[in-house]
Each structure stands twice: as structure tokens, then as C-alpha cells.
Design brief:
By secondary structure, this protein is of the alpha/beta class. The protein is built from eleven helices and 15 strands. Helix 4 packs across helix 5, helix 5 crosses helix 6 and helix 10 packs across helix 11. The two termini are 24 Å apart. Bound molecules: adenosine-5'-triphosphate. It holds the Pfam family SMC_N.
Length: 367
């Protein structure tokens, strides 16, 4: 799968800009704040229907304008595919594929597989468990539509059950029969999601460990563990056991919406005991494992976006990462960096075919 061209209208700092891409490697270079990350984000937007960096649609529209349009032309399995996303202030965002509007965004997820590696990934280590669940959900959803639809159904029932618990508390009442209907549904959907998460991690964890091993030259031991109460007890039992607590809290305190991933280095949490370079290596290994997993499942080479990844890594690690990307027989690569020379030196090692696109105050310049 190749992204051949991209046009942006009023997207973040760009008024109107067009790009033609190389089939292998494209590097966006330029000073801080020229919009390198914004171009990568526009490409991300075309795959996921939203920004990776700022999920509030109206804030992705250029200041003092009313709408944005992102227009991408792809070739996938030898067919041209045109994907257009547009958003107008105060209106629902629209995604069209070859002129036809999608009924729901979830139908589009997975059609244009993509992996992004960015400094913003550090949230996976520093933030709460919902960030790590979103990561797992994002990876599985790209190759499993049923997972995403089951997850949406599950989330809806959790919200309904929470409203019911609130209603019980406010009105000083209780209705075991209605609650039981929700419990049964949560149990059904929750078990499917738990099974799929566990199956995914069984494949994913060894790939991740091997990627980290390569990046760190095998000197450091890391682990990734799935933490879910459903691994020992069925959700139905857990819901019954926690009924009093849930009634008191007025929300559902157990279920797959509480699952987490434990990240460790040498047996200690990486958040507290990993250096900045080790944390960055950990995140890159996670994302490269994601790339590998999606490629295996979908049989398509995902687009790989590398946003400012050379920062804070020593030369050896950068070399190992580039070698990993090379060995994995990647598809199309998009890189952003402030240093044109450094980028060119690195990409020349991977491919003879590449394009350096210099962003600045004017039209992009091909170096
Ligand atoms: N909605 C918007 N309207 C106008 N400008 C915006 C909007 N959202 C973001 N920007 C601008 O985009 C610029 C940031 O672009 P981006 O993050 O892509 O820069 P960059 O080239 O990757 O920089 P760095 O090298 O510092 O990472 C900022 O100047 C910011 O003000």
C-alpha cells in the first residue's frame, strides 16, 4: 500500500499545500514549528479518522477558518483509492472513500493500516491505564473489525449500567432483574474482548521482547505483562462479587475497562526506573512490534510514520532501529526531523529511493 499524494486545505498551520510522495521513503525536514508533525498527523487522520495529537476536531482546523480538507490518493492491491476527510466547525466530520461517505468511522479503521512512532507515545508509560488499553485496542482493531464492534457494544452497556447504578442511588431503589440483563451482556462481550486481548498479547509480547533486545544490543531485560481480573475469574462472578461496591461508587468497578499492561525493566516499573533513552527504546520496540503484528494479520505493509525519533537516542540505537525497519521489509516510510543532513545520512543506508521535502514559509521544496 502506497500513499501517492496528499493535499491539505486549512489543516492546522497549512492553508493549502500539495505533496507527491516517493514509494519508499519521504522525509519532512525544517525548523521547529513549520508543520512537519502536522503533515504526519494528516496522514494518520486518513487512516484513523482523527488526529493522533489533538482529538478535538475544531482545533485541527486552521485558526480563523471554518473547515479543513485532507485528501489522500493511495494505491492498494493495485487499485487507486481516494480517501477524503473534511470537517466544518459545528458539524460532524465526514470520511469518504472513492466519493462514498462511510456510515460509521469504525468501518474505515483497518483499511489503511498505519503505525506512528512519536514523542507523544511517552503517554503510554507516564499516563493512566486507559492510554495502554487504547493502544491494545488500536492494534487489534486494525486487523479485527469484530473486536472494535464488540468493544463499542461493551462500552455502551457499561455506560447504561452506570446510569442505572446512579438512578438506584438517587431514587433509593434497586432492581436486580434489569441489572442482571446488563451483567449478562457485559459478561458476553467482556469475555470475547478478554480472549482476544490475551490471544493478541501471546503473539505480541515475544515480538516486542525481541525488538527491544535488538535495539539495546541485548544488554537489558524488559517485560510486558497483561493484567486483567478476568484471567482468573469470569466477569459475571466479578460483577456479582462487587455489587455492593458498585452500588456505593455508582459505577462499574470491574471489567475489561480496567485491564492494564505492566511495563518493566530489570523487574522494576520502567516509568520510575527507566532512563529517557530506555523509555524511548521501549516505546519504539512496542511500535515496531505493532507494525509486525499488523503486517502478519492484514498481509499489508502498514505505512510507518517516524516523528522526531532520533532525538535522545545514541548512534548505536538509531542504527539498530534503522536496521530493524530495513529487515522487516517495511512498506512506505514517512520521517520528520529538524536536521536534513542527519536524516539523509540515515535514510541513504536503507534505500536508494527517497525524497527529502523541506517545509518552510513557502511551497514545499524537494531536495
Ligand atoms: N489549528 C491550527 N491553526 C493554525 N496553526 C496551528 C493549528 N494547530 C497547530 N498549529 C501550528 O502548527 C505548528 C506546529 O507544527 P508541528 O508540530 O507540525 O511543527 P514541527 O515542524 O513538527 O515542529 P518541531 O520540530 O518543533 O517538532 C505551530 O506553529 C502551531 O501553532
Amino acid at each position: 500500500m502506497i500513499l501517492k499524494s496528499l493535499s491539505l486545505l486549512n489543516y492546522k498551520n497549512f492553508e493549502s499545500i500539495n505533496f507527491e510522495f516517493d514509494d519508499k521513503i519521504n522525509c519532512f525536514v525544517g525548523n521547529n514549528g513549520v508543520g512537519k508533525t502536522n503533515v504526519l498527523d494528516a496522514i494518520y487522520h486518513l487512516s484513523f479518522g482523527k488526529s493522533y495529537f489533538n482529538p478535538i476536531t475544531s482545533q485541527n482546523i486552521k485558526h480563523n477558518t471554518d473547515f479543513f480538507v485532507i485528501d489522500g490518493l493511495y494505491t492498494k492491491e493495485e487499485r487507486d483509492e481516494k480517501v477524503v476527510i473534511s470537517a466544518k466547525r459545528g458539524q460532524k466530520k465526514v470520511i469518504k472513500r472513492n466519493g462514498k461517505t462511510y456510515d460509521t468511522f469504525s468501518q474505515h479503521i483497518g483499511f489503511l493500516p498505519l503505525v506512528i512512532i512519536s514523542p507523544a507515545d511517552r503517554d503510554l508509560i507516564t499516563e493512566g491505564s486507559d492510554t495502554r488499553r487504547k493502544f491494545i485496542d488500536g492494534v487489534i482493531s486494525q486487523s479485527d473489525q469484530k473486536y472494535l464492534t464488540t468493544l463499542l457494544k461493551y462500552s455502551k452497556i457499561v455506560a447504561q449500567r452506570n446510569s442505572l447504578l446512579k438512578y438506584f442511588a438517587v431514587n433509593n431503589t434497586f432492581d436486580a432483574t434489569t441489572l442482571e440483563v446488563y451483567n449478562q451482556q457485559l459478561n458476553e462481550y467482556g469475555s470475547i474482548i478478554h480472549e482476544k486481548r490475551a490471544a493478541f498479547l501471546e503473539i505480541f509480547i515475544p515480538i516486542f521482547i525481541s525488538r527491544y533486545h535488538t535495539i539495546s544490543s541485548g544488554h537489558e531485560k524488559v517485560s510486558l505483562t497483561y493484567q486483567s481480573k478476568l484471567s482468573e475469574t469470569s466477569l459475571l462472578t466479578l460483577l456479582q462479587q462487587n455489587l455492593d461496591k458498585d452500588r456505593m461508587l455508582q459505577y462499574t468497578s470491574v471489567g475489561i475497562h480496567k485491564d492494564d499492561l505492566l511495563f518493566e525493566i530489570e523487574g522494576y516499573p520502567i516509568k520510575k526506573f527507566g532512563s529517557q533513552g530506555q523509555q524511548k527504546s521501549f516505546l519504539i520496540a512496542l511500535k515496531l512490534a505493532q507494525f509486525d503484528f499488523i503486517k502478519r494479520q492484514s498481509k499489508v505493509n502498514p505505512l510507518l510514520l517516524l516523528d522526531d525519533i532520533f532525538d535522545k537516542l545514541d548512534e548505536k540505537r538509531v542504527e539498530h532501529i534503522i536496521k530493524l525497519v530495513d529487515d522487516q521489509n517495511f512498506g512506505q516510510l514517512f520521517i520528520s526531523d529538524t536536521h536534513a543532513d542527519r536524516t539523509e545520512e540515515v535514510v541513504r543506508k536503507i534505500s536508494q529511493s527517497y525524497k527529502i521535502i523541506k517545509l518552510g514559509d513557502h511551497e514545499p521544496e524537494n531536495l
